[in-house]
Design goal:
Blueprint: H1 2-12, H2 16-26, H3 28-47, H4 73-96, H5 100-116, E1 121-124, E2 130-132, E3 137-142, E4 148-153, E5 158-162, E6 175-177, E7 184-185, E8 190-194, H6 196-201, E9 210-212, H7 215-218, E10 221-224, E11 227-230
Antiparallel strand pairs: 1-11, 2-8, 3-4, 3-7, 4-5, 5-9, 6-8, 10-11
Helix pairs in contact: 1-2, 2-3, 3-4
Length: about 230
């Protein structure tokens, strides 16, 4: 989960899998990323680094800082990018140092959850215009902007459903929730509604990532006949 999310964020600028599947889930790395980003932005302002093109933010879009008349603008941008990236790793390490026992306890809980699964577990697609519960479980995290929801099955499968891309900017307007944090639901229950036309008119993509955030502990995930197949 962590490696593919990092690749999509760094190379393609698609940060949702990393943000909602990793950093927000772990909390402290998200704090480290925010602090690092703030420091990087401050340095950009002090050095008056300029962008010469409108692009999706990512490592590959650093070319936007190449000045038509030369100069050190691009060099500054590369250095700031590297400093911000390294600083985020360093701060994450500092903030999470000493949590080995807690991580070991969490690993034990994950193993217990995984032990509940025997053979393959098939989950129907939760999104067909509306978002329906693909299993019996509980709502762990319904975001304030209603564009994403984290749910956990009764047998330990953790799923993140992120409706569209960059839809956090819509501030919940095209969405309507039918559940809340801590609420238990049955398979097939309506969890979330959204207006596809409104999302598209706002300039957002409607691709909806469905991510099993603890897939590695459960034996992996594949897609067969429009269903998620977990374990083996």
């Amino acid at each position: 989960m962590e490696f593919p999310a990092a690749v999509s964020a760094l190379l393609a600028g698609v940060t949702e899998p990393a943000m909602y599947g990793v950093t927000l889930k772990l909390k402290k790395p998200m704090v480290a990323a925010c602090i690092s980003g703030g420091i990087g932005g401050l340095i950009v302002g002090i050095l008056q680094v300029k962008s010469y093109a409108f692009v999706t933010p990512s490592m590959t879009s650093l070319v936007q800082f190449i000045s038509p008349d030369g100069g050190k603008n691009f060099l500054y941008a590369v250095i700031i990018f590297a400093v911000t990236l390294v600083l985020s790793f360093v701060l994450s390490f500092i903030l999470t140092k000493g949590e080995a026992e807690e991580e070991a306890a969490e690993e034990t809980e994950l193993q217990k959850s995984a032990a509940v699964l025997t053979g393959k577990v098939e989950i129907e697609a939760p999104v067909k215009g509306k978002v329906y519960a693909p299993f019996d479980g509980v709502c762990e995290n319904l975001f304030d902007t209603l564009h994403a929801i984290g749910i956990t099955s009764d047998n330990g499968i953790e799923m993140l459903i992120h409706v569209g891309l960059e839809t956090v900017a819509l501030k919940g307007e095209p969405f309507k929730a039918h559940t809340g944090n801590g609420e238990h639901f049955k398979k097939g229950a309506l969890l979330l509604e959204f207006d596809i036309d409104a999302i598209q008119k706002a300039g957002c993509e409607i691709q909806t990532p469905v991510i099993i955030t603890n897939a590695e502990e459960l034996g992996g995930v594949t897609v067969e006949n429009e269903r998620l197949v977990i374990g083996g």
